[in-house]
Amino acid sequence: MKTLFPEGFLWGGAVAANQCEGAYLEDGKGLSIQDIMPHGIMGAWTKEPTEDNMKLVGVDFYHRYKEDIRLFAEMGFKIFRTSIAWSRIFPNGDELTPNEIGLQFYDDLFDECHKYGIEPMVTISHYETPLHLAKEYNGWTNRKLIRFYENYVRTIFARYRGKVKYWLTFNEINSILMAPLMSGGIMTPREELSAQNLYQAIHHELVASALAVKIAHEMMPGAMVGCMILGSPTYPLTAHPDDVIKAMKKDQENYYFADVQVRGYYPRYLDSYLKEQGVKIQMEPGDEEILKNTVDFVAFSYYGSSCESADLNAEVGKGNILGGVKNPFLPVSQWGWPIDAQGLRYLLNQMYDRYQKPLFVVENGLGAEDHLVMGPDGELTVEDDYRIQYMEAHIREMAKALEDGVELLGYTSWGCIDLVSASTAQLKKRYGFIYVDRNDDGTGTLSRYKKKSFYWYKHIIETNGQCLLEKEG
Questions:
Q1: 402 within a domain of the structure (yes/no)
Q2: Containing domain of residue 94, as a range?
Q3: What is the tally of structural domains in the chain?
Q4: Distance (Å, rounded) from C-alpha 133 to C-alpha 147?
Q5: Domain containing 427 — which CATH number?
Q6: CA 221 → CA 9, 96, 295, 421, distances in Å?
Q7: For residue 470, what are the contacts with CB-CB under 8 A and spacing of at least 6?
Q8: Which of 11, 79, 449, 458 has its CA 20 to 30 A from that of 117?
C-alpha cells in the first residue's frame, strides 16, 4: 500500500512563550524585549510595558498549560514545540544564579507533555531576549551575550537533559536582517544600524549557536540540536537573467545563516557582499573552531515564497515576509501574505539538496479572522474550512517532497492554539486549531473551544496522513 508519511513521523504544533504564556512578571520573571513591543515586528516600541500589549497576558498558557496539553494530546500530538522564556530563568540575562521558580515551571510543563507521550521540542531563544541585555549591552551587537547565552544553555541543558531531546538554538535567526530588535535584542533603530554592527551581531549569534551544539553534544549525547531559519524560497519575477541573479542573491542572503550552522564555516559568496557593505567581521581566537560544531538537523518556518526583480518599478509584494515584489500568480491571505503550497515542496527539495541533513517543518499555518458559531452538537466552534484547505494543500506538498527523496522528521503547525501574532501583535489574526476567547481590546473569558480544524488535524495524525489518499479516491 502506498504511504505518504514514514512511520514515526512527528506530527504536532508549535508556540512561543512570549506569544502565549502571559504572566509577564510573575514568579520572578524579568522583562523581555517583547514586553515593550506592543505593535509587532516593525512597530515602534515603548520604554516600559503598556496595557495595550496583548503579550502581557497572551492566552494565559502559563496558568492553563495543563488544559492545553490535554487538548493537544486529544489531537494526538507526537511532539510539541515551545520556547523557554530566557527572562524566566535569568530575569536580567546576565546573572550567574537562575530563578528556581522559572526552572520549575518548565519542569512541570515538560512533565505534562510526557504524561501524554508528547515529546517536547524547545527553542532556546525565540524573540525574547531579556530586556536588560538589550538596554545595557545593545543585544547581540555585544560579544558578552555569547557568555550570557552559554550560561543560560548550560543551565537548561543540565536541568532538562532527561526530558528534552529536540532543541533549536535561535528562532528564525535570519530575521535579524529585517527585525534587529525582535530577533537580536538590538535597540539601535534599523535605519540607524550600521551593516558592520548588524553582521557582527549575526556572527555573535552564530558562534553562540555552535557553542550550544557543542555543549549539548557533551552534556546530552542523545540530543538532537537544530538551527531554525525563516524559510522563503525566492523566485525570479521573469526569466530575464537580471531577475534570476537578483533572486539568487536574495536566497544567498538568507541561506548563509544555515550554511554556517550546517557546514561549519562562512560561505565564499558572502565575501564580496560584505566587502561591498564595508563590513569586516571581527573573529576572536577560537571562533572558527567553535563554528565547526554543526547542527544535527535543519528546521524552518514556511508561510510563503517571495519574488524578486531587477525592475525598480515592479509592484512591491506588501505581504511578503522578507520583502520582494508581488508574484502575480499567487493568491494572498487576509493579511496579504502570498499563499504558495508548492513553494514548500520546492523549499524542502532545495534545502535537502543543499545540506543532506534531516529537515523539520516547525512552523506553517494560516493567520485569519475566526468567528465562533454554534455547531451541530450544540457546542461553540469555528467553521474554519479555509484553514483546513490551506494546511491540507501544504501537507500534500510535504508528501510529494518525501516522494522526491527528502528526509523529513516532522511537522509542527504554527499557533496550534490561538496566540498573539508576532507580526502584528493581534489576537484576531488566529492560527490555532483551538479558539481562545480573548480579543484585541483585552476582553474575553480565555475559554478554549475546538475548531473544525481540530478534528481534521486529529484525523490527519491518527492516520499518519493516509486519510489524504482516501480523499483522493
A1: yes
A2: 10-472
A3: 1
A4: 12
A5: 3.20.20.80
A6: 22, 25, 13, 35
A7: 463
A8: 449
Which residue's C-alpha cell is 512561543? Answer: 16
Q: At what angle do helices 195-219 and 144-160 cross, to 10 degrees?
A: 30
2 inside domain: no
The Cα 161–Cα 228 span in angstroms is 20
Q: Which residues are catalytic?
A: 363
Type of residue found at 440 = D
